[in-house]
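FAQ
Q: What does a multi-component entry look like?
A: The components come first, one per line:
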Amino acid sequence: MNTVVAKLQRQFQDYLVSLYQQGFLDNQFTELRKLQDEGTPDFVAEVVSLFFDDCSKLINSMSRSLERPENVDFKQVDSGVHQLKGSSSSVGARRVKNVCISFKECCDVQNREGCLRCLQQVDYEYKMLKTKLQDLFNLEQQIVQAGGAIPQHFPSYTILRPDIRPCLDA
Amino acid sequence: MVCEMETDQIEEMDVEVLSSMWPDDVGTQADNQFNVEKPAGDSDTLKEVDIAEKRTMADLKRLPELLNTTDQGSSQLTNLVRQWEYMQDHAVRLLREELKILTRQREEAEAKELKIIEEHNFETEEPENVPVLDETSHLFRRFRQKKRDELVDSKRVVIDEEFDTVAYWKQKALSLEKMLEASTERERRLIEKLNESLKTMESHSAPVEELTQNLKRAEGFLHFILQNAPIVMGHQDKDLRYLFIYNKFPSLREQDILGKTDVEIFHGGGVKESEDFKREVLEKGKASKREITFETELFGSKTFLIYVEPVYNKAREKIGINYMGMEVTDQVRKREKMAKLREDNAVRKAMESELTKTIHITEETMRAKQMLATMSHEIRSPLSGVVGMAEILSTTKLDKEQRQLLNVMISSGDLVLQLINDILDLSKVESGVMKLEATKFRPREVVKHVLQTAAASLKKDLTLEGNIADEVPILVVGDVLRIRQILTNLISNAIKFTHRGKVGIKLKVISQPSFASDKEQNETSVWICCDVYDTGIGIPENALPCLFKKYMQASADHARKYGGTGLGLAICKQLVELMGGQLTVTSQVNLGSTFTFILPYKVATSDDHSDDQDEFSDMVDHHQPEPDDTTEGYFQFKPLLGSIYSNGGPVMSNNFLPHKAMLTSPIKLINGSVADPSNSSGQSQTVQVENGGYMDESESAHQYGNGNGHRCPSKESESCSSSQASSEMESELTVSSPREEEKTETEVKETSQPKILLVEDNKINIMVAKSMMKQLGYTMDIANNGVEAINAVKDTSYDLVLMDVCMPVMDGLKATRLIRSYEESGNWDAAIEAGVDIKTSENDQGCERSTDRLPIVAMTANTLAESSEECYANGMDSFISKPVTLQKLKECLQQYLQ
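Then the predicted structure of the entire assembly, as tokens:
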């Protein structure tokens, strides 16, 4: 086996594992990767980029809503957060999702300060994730270019034990 | 009465003291004393004393005798005599004092006379008589003078004659002589009187009268004290026959008591005891006290504190007993009540502390369990990584030794993972986190699948059989996943410990077992008893009790020989109990074991059964059997030993059932489906793949179509992957097979697709869900909110709706309510009322479906606002939590697209 490919593959694995370990991603991302096959080779990248576009749009609209201290339309912010939470949960963007949860709480009690803080965090987290995933996709690209296959399996018990979900999560 | 008075030496002393303190009038003084308290009781007291006298009964003939013969008896008389003597002594003393005074007066008078004579002789001119001895004290002289004045009638002698004349002196001498004479005369009289008095005193013979009076006083005193006291006193002779009793029970007459024993007088509880006690005292000769509760017809239940002392005669011989009883029923009752209260208090306190201890322990245990679960969970992720990596590694090119090492690594990792999963399962059940789901399922199918799966990894020459009684309902409601888990666990256990013969499952309906409470019982529920039996090594009786305990195996030997975590049965038991059932085991060494679990199920109506079975009979993951298979009650599977790699297709043997054969390994499947070009139709090929190794010798392959292969989510896939049957090929297979199948499915799955509607507003969610559906071989329509969903449902006949709960325009709950309202009423009036713009449509399909209930599955984000209860309340059939995974989606489709 090509040593360059093997090295890249290991690098890819390591990087991916680190993303899980640092909490950027969760199992749902694994789910996502399972959906990618020869028919849809760029599925993950497509979904993720759609997600980031979505993030950017939602964050913009929410920041506009929160701009003026008086008469903030919390309902609108809430719907944005809800959207964002759903999307991040769907792609497995764990950190973004977690921020969304506190964001929603702030929204529920109409805490503008908290909302703004969360907004900043969400903005930071999604951009961070974007960079990380960009790197990951680059690695993928390199592996493909070097003629290797992208490792399909990585640390996730869903592959090994599909029927048992963590019971004490959340 | 008197006798009683003297029973106690101390009392005797008291009496003595009393008599000396109030020597004259004990009676009157006492009366006066108590008159203050009882102002009107003066005369009454006397009367009562009289009445009280009647309470005493004595054998008058024998009592005086008794008084004379006993120490106690004589002491009273002695006492009285002593009193009398004391009084006499007193009188004598007084008289003597008087005598002394008189004597002294006489001496003085004599002295005076002498002095006068001297004066007269020496013709002193002293006007006054001054005693020789008393010159010094003027006062004393005065006093003396005074005294003399008193004693002598007239000390001043009146003399008419002129002082210091002969006549004067003569006269004075004369008068003095007269005075002396008078004095002497007085003295003589006094002496006479004294002698007389002494004489009368002597003649004052026996003090009978006085003694009688004293006795009467003492008696009166005692009566006064005792008249209302709850005291019974008596004397009994040495045969314990009453000679005397005070305060007897009113209805008893003299002849009823005197001369009789307790036992002859009373009947009932305590009588014998008191008699025995008296006898004991008599024998031991020592006074003692005891509390005895009487239970007699005469006076009911009464407790007496009884004092008994032996009575001796003067010769120190025992002649009987004195007895005194005080009624203490109330006190005893009170005391017992107090004791009981105190006891209760102590018990309550003990219970309280016990409870706190238990709570403490429980908290600790829960914490420990939580900790264990958390740790297990934390271990699982990196371990999954290790095993995952190892599996990836096994796809690379390795030499034989490396591969062997790798396989050991993977299987060890798998074992640890299994253990951790078991621990998590257990802690889920124990901490109450595990929720049971109610889904419709066919017990026959479940049994069949479990057996099929077990057969797929079977490496022994065993026959697996299933036997389901006819009365078992076709369709029941229960948590099928958990029931499968239990069955799979029990079956794999059975196979593990069985080396020849058979392993099987038997289902039958039983009546409600005794351990079930009544409230669980209703007409639609049925109790099914499931036996999992084998002809294996059996379990020794002494190992049975710890069989269901965690981490325990029948013996250390077994643990070494057979491996395993020792958690499987514990999980089974917990799961069964969680579902309200019972798991038991019977076993005989070397003959086999039977594990039996009894569970309640609700009987489901199989109305969705007739119309969709043709439509979906070829569906992937859809257990749609042929009609005759639905009710088939017997299955048998045998392994295909030694034929695994022999050729591309299955080898049929005469031992097999006519049209069924089971491959031992999933590898066979790939071999079979790929290498068997004889399969003419794509459909049957698909089914073979789906069967997970189930091959058919005839054309009726689809008959056993089910999603039970290694793609299957549940335990089956585990057993496949953990079987490690074929070292070389398996890991490759587990990695690659899903994808191959998926492809095959999507190729074939174009016709008669079930119609699915996804109602979701989030683009990304839609994209992900769509992709998942695609991978599962389905397509679906999309609606972006509740209104769109209603319009879509109106126009198209869907088989399943996946409904997001939180959506703009109209949320999923409301949309579901409106759809349900349409199903009930057949019109969309409610929706129109709610403001939904119902587009008119030529399509009449909606009306056709109006009687069927459209399965609507909620997709919730698991927040408080989107609780499952609310979903059910709004007419949803079940829910899957977000984010949606392939697994959840597949389970859902399996359940609703049957």
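Q: Is there any commentary attached?
A: Sometimes. For this entry: Chain A touches chain B through 47 residues (CB under 8 Å).
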